Amino acid sequence: SLGVERLTSREREVVQLLAEGNSNKAIASRLDLSVKTVETHRASVMRKLELNSLADIVRFAVRNHIIQP
Predict the structure, then answer these.
(1) Disulfide check for 7: which of 11, 15, 28, 41 has CB 3.0–4.6 Å away?
(2) Are the CB atoms for 60 and 15 separated by under 8 Å?
(3) Confidence grade of residue 69 (pLDDT, cut at 50, 70, 90)
(4) pLDDT tens-place string over residues 12-55
């Protein structure tokens, strides 16, 4: 889909981890990033894809086969 191509590999990774139910803090720990950096990636994804909520991120991830439903 058009959306996935607009994401950096790191943003896509953050989308996957969020959609799998991980918290910002858990993602930060797993990727060795600060929570602030994870929040920045998350905000960037939401802006690029015009998403408004975590539920939107999960739907996007399922539709684009980033995670299995």
Answers:
(1) 11
(2) yes
(3) confident
(4) 999 999 999 999 999 999 999 999 999 999 999 999 999 999 99
Distances (CA, A) of 46 to 29, 58, 63: 21, 11, 15
Cβ atoms of residues 7 and 42 within 8 Å? no
CB 67 within 8 A of CB 16: yes
DSSP state of 63: H
Name which of 47, 54, 69, 68 is nearest 15 in CA terms: 54
CB-based contact 19:67 (threshold 8 Å): yes
